[in-house]
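Hello,

Our lab assistant flagged a job as stuck in the queue for most of the afternoon. It eventually completed. Since we weren't sure the result was trustworthy after the delay, we are filing this so someone can double-check. Below is the sequence as submitted and the structure that was eventually returned. Let us know if re-running is recommended.
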Amino acid sequence: MNRVGKSCGFSLIELAVVLVIIGLLLGGGIAALSATNEQARRSDAERQLADIRQALYGYALSEGRLPCPDANDDPPDGREDLNADGDDCLQGAGALPWVALGVGRRDPWGNVFGYRVENGVDDPDDSSDSCNDPQNFADPTKSKQDPAFGLEDCADLKVDDGVGGGIVNSAAAIVVSYGPQGGQVWTEDGFVCPGAGSVPASGFSPEETDNCDDDQLFQAAEFRPAEADDGRFDDMVIWLATPILKARMVEAGTLPR
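-- returned structure --
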């Protein structure tokens, strides 16, 4: 006897199950690809930051000082900004002066690097800082034996680990990549620190706000994803420890022994 009306296709329930499985597989694959791409960017940023650290050391050995931040241009042009007399940095914080250092302009997320230099290095004419040697670092007649700062100068930029532990208390300079959130820091209005002086902005942890609020404390916490209980932390921070910087300058003859 012939069987009439028997269906050879899939039922709607079976199709729905298949679509759900495909969706889960695609979603997991996209998430994995996104995580892989983000890790690749962070690895690229680590290499860039290592190059920047070496460039800063090289600049100090050559010029007897660290470069001033690019602090007066919107968008940043990568050049140092000095005051009207040309004898001091216009500001202690701004964009990394990539032209002066000969390094790449942008981090892997398409934003410039933040840069902070300690007053004992960038502001030698500030008599209110007892660590400063009052010298005109922009004086073209200055010899390498009369540098912008001496062995007696101190540096007081500080880096913590994000959980209350100090990493370094005497950094001469700090460089920051703000990661995928850098577009919220380097905006069309210039440099903006979300949540500075108040409750941190949405998506910014207190440690991330610490890294753009123009004070002397920075955070180099462990990476945390956006869904972490204590908030995202994806900034990448490097610093120049003053004792190491001075030791290299002494060895190179830029600082007297």
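-- support follow-up --
The delay was a queue issue, not a problem with the job. The result is valid. Confidence is low (pLDDT under 50) at residues 132-138. The chain is about 30% helix and 15% strand.
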